Amino acid sequence: MRALQIDDRGNSTVDFALVAPLLIGVALVVLQVALALHVRSTLTAAAGEGARVAAMAGASSALGEQRTSEVLHGNFASSVIAEVRVEQVREAGLVLSQVTIKARLPLLGLLGPAVLEVHGRAIQEHV
What we know:
With 127 residues, this protein is α+β, with helices and mostly antiparallel strands. The protein has one domain: Pantoate--beta-alanine Ligase, Chain: A,domain 2, CATH 3.30.1300. 46% of the residues lie in helices and 24% in strands. The protein contains two helices and three strands; from the N terminus they run H-H-E-E-E. It has helices spanning 11-55, 61-73, and strands at 81-91, 94-104, 115-123. A three-stranded antiparallel beta sheet has the order 1-2-3. A hairpin with a 2-residue loop joins strand 1 and strand 2. The longest helix is centred in the first third of the chain and has 45 residues, at 11-55. The mean pLDDT is 87. Keywords: Membrane, Transmembrane, Transmembrane helix.
């Protein structure tokens, strides 16, 4: 006896319609994670650069804040940066220049933090 042949024409269209939204969702999640990591890395680099400049012998906190702002404005829109703060802190007997940056994290969804805070530190040089 011959087995019945099932006509499966048109199944690939239904399969695509069911799988495409899942693939698009996964792609958006991957893009969101990549964007968040890029923003965090750039903010951390800017904070470290500002702390390094502020910690140089004879430099002021204002100079560190200026350098941090230059790096940030070269990479982000002004609306993303919420706060840049430079301060001198004492830790383990050392004087450190610490730069704190608070920025809004551009989100595609509602997952994850809305505000990202990073710190950069450098040991204060003495003349």
